[in-house]
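Notebook, p. 212. Picked up where the previous page left off. The plan for this session was modest: take the two constructs that came back from the sequencing core last week, fold each one, and keep the raw output in the notebook itself so nobody has to go hunting through shared drives later. Recording the first one now, exactly as returned: residue sequence, then the structure token string.
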Amino acid sequence: MKSFLPSPSIQLLVLLLLSLASGAQAQTHRLTATPPSYRRFNSWLMVNSDARLNDKWGLHTEAQLREVKGPNAPQQKFLRIGANYYAANILVLSAGYAYTMSFPEGNDSELGSLPEHRSYQQLLLRFDSSRVQTQHRYRLEQRWVRRPGSGQFTYLNRLRYQLRLTLPLSSQKKVLPGTPYLTGYDEVFIGFGRNSDGNIFSQNRACLALGYQISHATSVEMGYLNQMASQEEMASLAANHILHLGLNFNPDFRKGKLTAESN
């Protein structure tokens, strides 16, 4: 059956254009006055895991420390857990729960913390028939957010779409153990519903990173992430320049898989 997807070269060009557009927005908003507490440069430390339990089911876990001043002073802590259903070779359906704890000024107890509870549903499409591996991620989120100055939670809806491309930096067609690779993605966040206050655009994230596949299950990544985020209280956009550090651990516990990969 003929594929209606654009060629890998076209997909890579689209991703690069989206990243450049996000960077151009960041340059524009550098001229905008921001409060003294605003931090433009920071880092995100990420650990992601998709464990394959059997042919149909898997477990997703994720932990992040965001906007880190030091190991004991993250501005935001993030945890996610979910179930993955492998409907086909290219299609994964997921659902789960995420929890975020934000500190407006780092660990300043006088300002308090801002928790968020979140449920999500996700559809993931993966294509790896060419050297450029392509991933489309569609995610719907239901969020219960405590905003600054409020003792109650506000319910919000959000839709996210991410395009991710991965290219092995070797003569091999796929990313195998011992292979360095280049990966990049662009993700747009759209808010909707009664409490969105007409603010449809929530944020955009564009990332370009170098990775290394240590084993079948483990890889590490380091790169640059540009985040354009809507600031409701200021009616403006904030540009964040982020050092992205990631560890991926994706074991396969299906019969025979774990033993074969460890050998």
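Okay, moving on. Second construct, recorded in the same format:
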Amino acid sequence: MSAARLLVLGALARRGIAHGYGVHQDLVSWRADTWTSVKPGSIYHALEKLASQGLIEPSSSEDSTKLGPARTEYAITEEGRQEFIRLLEAALKNNDFQMVAAGIAFMEFLPRARAARLLEERLDSLRATVSFLRTLPTQPIPADPSKHPELVGLWVGYFDYAVASTESLLQALRSGSYLFIDEQK
């Protein structure tokens, strides 16, 4: 799964219609480069790929005030909206930081209860990972990297934090924070 794909579809779902540069500007203003590895080139590549798959629909801009050739605008198709929701749901369950970050950025496109259930699935997976990591053997002088106490400690610390932050997000959802699609008028 690609964070760029989810971010581009999410930006178009939010905007309705946009030039590639508009999608790029949204991601820059959201500072998406700090919480994903999405770069400008991957945005334009994702736009081309999504268009070739029929998930977004390109059209020429009719902006008569702009000098030069028409720009291509994109709108998400019904198939694209379904793919966006599929990617969003997968991202909220994902243990990869970049994917869950992209999922959180667009979680309001889901009903509150669905977002909470997906995050609960993530939490179960994270807890299982922490339990497994705590069973890994370590050696004071490791024979291989997987037995290095600092490396295992780093993994455990990362996943402990992921558990705590997911619990915190779930608590926020349960207490009514944020506005979800099923609550909008």
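Notes on construct two before I forget. The two ends are 32 Å apart (CA to CA).
Flagging for discussion at group meeting.
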